[in-house]
């Protein structure tokens, strides 16, 4: 993943904040041209995003969740996603767990589409993207921050319209869906 010539050297690093979900560090850096500067980095443990896709005689459907996102002060629709605040996770176990926790769904088949980086201009966090198929509904078990989750099943056409009309603004959901569409077209 990622490669090439390193053009920025870390001179020193110090942690400036930590909680169970996030740490923030401030690095003194030196660029290839010799100029020094400061770089702020948010470190977070790996996460996943799941595309719960249901196919049948009535068409294709996606399950979305709506929740309040404190940082931007509003409720938003997105694909199920999250992490366990663990540095080492088995990506498929994480994806199955988040899907079940947020929606109550279990998947017969999970396909790992890729691992992306979330906002790598400021954050170091991997995002494992999974396609979930063969869905069975059970009971959701959201954590405290997710107690207000709403689950909604929408047609693929409605989902894509929600992306285009600005109802869905979560870049991770849009990126995961774009990745899925490319993956599907190449199969």
Would you mind describing this structure in some detail?
With 187 residues, the chain is of the alpha+beta class. It has two domains: 36 residues, no CATH class; 140 residues, Alpha-Beta Complex (Nucleoside Triphosphate Pyrophosphohydrolase), CATH 3.90.79.10. The chain contains three helices and eleven strands, in the order βββββββαββββαα. The strands form two sheets. Strands 4, 5, 6, 7, 8, 10 and 11 form a seven-stranded mixed β-sheet that branches. Strands 1-2-3-9 form a four-stranded mixed β-sheet, with no helix packed on it. Strand 1 and strand 2 form a beta hairpin. The longest helix has 16 residues. It is globular and about 60 Å long. The two termini are 23 Å apart. The model has no long low-confidence stretch (mean pLDDT 93).
